[in-house]
C-alpha cells in the first residue's frame, strides 16, 4: 500500500475544462519544474493565501 500511495503522489491527471485553462496548466507545470525548493515553498504559501480568500478550504 505504501508503494501505491507513493505512485499516487507522483502521477495524477489534471483535466482543464477549456483550452485556455489547458494552456495555463501546462505553462504552470513547466515553470514549477525549474523552481528551487525555496521557491516552491513560497509559491505554496501564496497559493494557500489565494485559496483562503477565494474558496472555503
Protein architecture, described:
- The chain contains 3 helices and no strands.
- It is an all-alpha fold.
- The protein has one domain (2-54).
- It is globular.
- The two termini are 28 Å apart.
- The mean pLDDT is 81.
Secondary-structure element series: HHH
Number of helices: 3
How many individual β-strands? 0
Give the low-pLDDT segments.
none
How many domains make up the coordinates? 1
Q: How widely separated are the two ends?
A: 28 Å
Strand-pairing-aware structural class: mainly alpha
What does the main sheet amount to? none
Please bin the fraction of helical residues. Answer: over 70%
Quaternary organisation: single chain
Rounded average pLDDT: 81
The gross shape turns out to be: globular
- What fraction of the residues are assigned to beta strands by DSSP? under 5%
Rg value: 14 Å
SSE layout:
Layout: H1 2-10, H2 19-32, H3 37-54
Outline of this structure?
By secondary structure, the chain is mainly α. The protein has helices at 2-10, 19-32, 37-54.
What are the defining features of this structure?
single chain, 57 residues, mainly alpha
Amino acid at each position: 500500500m505504501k508503494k501505491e500511495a507513493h505512485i499516487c503522489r507522483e502521477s495524477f491527471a489534471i483535466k482543464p475544462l477549456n483550452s485556455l485553462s489547458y494552456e495555463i496548466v501546462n505553462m504552470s507545470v513547466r515553470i514549477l519544474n525549474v523552481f528551487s525548493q525555496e521557491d516552491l515553498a513560497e509559491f505554496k504559501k501564496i497559493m494557500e493565501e489565494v485559496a483562503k480568500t477565494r474558496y472555503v478550504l
